Amino acid sequence: MYLTDEEKRMLDGEQGYGVQKGMQLMVGLGEAMEAEKLIPVTNVHLGGLSIRSSEDAGYLFYKDLADRGAKFKITPTTNVLSGDFELWTSMGLSAAERQRQYELIDAFARMGALRTQTCTPYLLGNVPRFGETCSWMETSAIAFINSILGAHTNREAGAAACAAALTGRTPYFGYHMPENRIGSVLVHVEKKGLNSIYDAGNLGFYFGRFSGYGNVVLDGIDEHIDNRFYVQLAGAASTAGDVAMFHIVGVTPEAPDLKTAFGGKKPVIEVSYGEKEEKEVIEYLNTANDTDEVNWVYMGCPMLQYEDLMDLAKEIEGKQVAPGVEFWATTAMPTKELIRRQGILQVLEDAGVNVVTDCCPILTPLGQLERMRNRGIHHVVTNSTKQCALIPGMCFMDTHYGDLEKCVEAAVTGKWR
Ligand code: F3S
After folding, report:
1. Quick one: average pLDDT of 318-324?
2. Whose CA is closest to atom 5 on ligand 1?
3. pLDDT at 290
4. Taking the model in full, what pTM does it have?
């Protein structure tokens, strides 16, 4: 792989241990992917901060970097942790886990990372420009910034994004190359009136399964849809398949029309999305068919925005979460502060909703089977397609999947109907 003279000196250690380590990773990744060169990167979102995802190897690696004085050249935002520090004990997490989580996030902060601790950093000020070269970890966010903002990133692993932040470089391959960003699969969206994040999750999960054929192009989506729809679409699609990018004709900056979305070529395959396909997705994601029992209700994957929390408050105000049911709504810390000021947090807490920040259920040690069972939790009720896809495999639990109204009804009655 071609390296500039400066990059060679970085690899030789002229700029210190952290940059050298980062360059070793970038060159290794670049050679594995047969990249011809490195390119400057200006925007990084880091993962690997959760003690569950980093495990021992990541914990030791990142701590060692920080202890040796490594500093990020690009100030990165950071992804979720394994728990909410303010609710740590009530979440059933131990003091030892808290200490390890603190040391890990402290290591990233000492290197210069921003403690955003969210999977939706693009809602908190890290909004990449059209065409900006990024190195992002977190599948839902990657699909969002490529597809809706027109930024350029691959689906990075935590260590690769960290190396990009240390060096300001990333290998030139994949979604950094214009020819890999054009569409291959045409999805005719025949179902009209799609609007809610539940609608978005169903559609995203459907088309994500075609990612093996290349980038999907969605044609026929109503124009009035808001940002929340696209966030959920990206989250669901990137879980159903290896989706880093999709096009929505008229929305994606690189897809002003169908012809441009396909780069002038013909689609490899064409499929349609209507009532039948939506029903199939809903049936597939409802795995808790043997029970109507409700133990745990979860919303916030990807993390809830202000408007989502407002909608939840409207739906649950004056009602009460049933005894024995736990209700989590996850969001970013600044959003929780905003709803506190607006009086919405009080409404949610009065109804029995725990507004949890900084973490994600599948990355908490709480997600482990034994811990769940000890707490008497066996099934999850959620409106998140991504969690439905991940929870059975990662947490060994079944899912009841429905829209906001159905999830709130389950929470207050203790029954799934
Ligand atoms: Fe965020 Fe966890 Fe979902 S990181 S996108 S809440 S799986």
Report:
1. 95
2. 302
3. 81
4. 0.96
